[in-house]
Write a structure and sequence with these properties.
With 287 residues, this protein is α/β, with parallel strands linked by helices. Helix content is 47%, strand content 15%. It has ten helices and eight strands. The longest helix has 18 residues, at 39-56.
Length: 287
């Protein structure tokens, strides 16, 4: 059973006949829009499909389906998280409720299984019980955690974590940040302050800023991604909750419009239900 099999209920090509007619392309556009790819991205995808179908001499809907899988896979930008230095630092950002802390827990667990020495940093000091929630995941994953009291300065917690990472010879530090979007300036100021601390304490370290998005929010997720990209210069996306009601097309919209790679995807609550994102596997499941 493939990782993205929970997406298959969408089946964008369901109910089409075998002929490649204008009606087929119109219906395909409707299906893609319903799958949360958005209007502009849908038009671009269908235009590319038409171009490739013509150039490859494809005559049937089944043939077009195979071409569409490649079109979507090629559109999706992917990439591995850069953990090339010791320690490396990964910041997780995103609004509350998207599964940020859970994502850190799962990735930490997987890195621990790869024999990496992982350190969690509880820099979300604004949400009540955020540190406690991350502590539960740290215990479950068997990794260390650095935290302070609720309301503490997030940059101070990050400073403690960077110092601890050096002292404990950690391989990677996973940093949980506050999930609020009062306004772009507040967010930018806080993340800049955290970045300065990391630059000062671990100059030249490999760094990632991953935006965690709830796939069920559809086009609203794209709005969030735009705001966070402007404020924080994100290096990748973690797309959670691709099971349930999520249509999945939002992954294509983000990749196409923002040029930011999807690096992880989550399809459930289990510890293994979050994996590095595979564009071809995702495209096959979606189509």
């Amino acid at each position: 059973m493939g990782f993205f099999d929970k997406l298959k209920k969408i089946n964008i090509f369901a109910g089409f006949g075998s002929e490649l007619t204008d009606d087929f392309y119109d219906e395909l556009e409707e299906s893609l829009i319903l799958a949360d790819t958005g209007m502009d991205v849908t038009v671009a995808l269908v235009e590319e499909l038409r171009r490739r179908v013509r150039s490859e001499g494809v005559k049937t809907v089944d043939g077009a389906r195979e071409v569409m899988v490649r079109v979507i896979a090629d559109t999706l930008s992917t990439g591995e998280v850069n953990l090339s230095t010791k320690p490396s630092v990964v910041l997780f950002i995103g609004v509350n409720g998207v599964g940020k802390t859970t994502t850190i827990g799962k990735i930490g667990h997987q890195l621990r299984d790869q024999r990496k020495k992982v350190l969690f940093c509880a820099a979300d000091t604004f949400r009540a019980a955020a540190a406690e929630q991350l502590t539960i995941w740290a215990d479950r994953a068997g990794v260390d955690i650095i935290k302070q009291h609720e309301g503490a300065d997030p940059a101070a917690v990050v400073f403690d974590a960077m110092s601890a990472a050096k002292a404990r010879n950690s391989d990677v530090v996973l940093v949980d940040t506050a999930g609020r979007l009062h306004n772009k300036q507040n967010l930018m100021n806080e993340l800049n302050k955290i970045s300065r601390v990391i630059d000062r304490e671990l100059p030249g370290c490999a760094r990632e800023t991953l935006l965690v998005l709830d796939a069920t929010t559809g086009q609203n997720g794209l709005v969030q991604a735009r705001q966070f990209k402007e404020a924080a210069g994100i290096t990748g996306i973690v797309l959670t909750k691709l099971d349930g009601t999520a249509k999945g097309g939002i992954a294509i919209a983000i990749a196409k419009e923002l040029g930011v790679p999807v690096k992880y995807a989550g399809v459930g609550e289990g510890i293994d239900d979050l994996r590095p994102f595979d564009a071809m596997e995702f495209a096959q499941a979606l189509i």
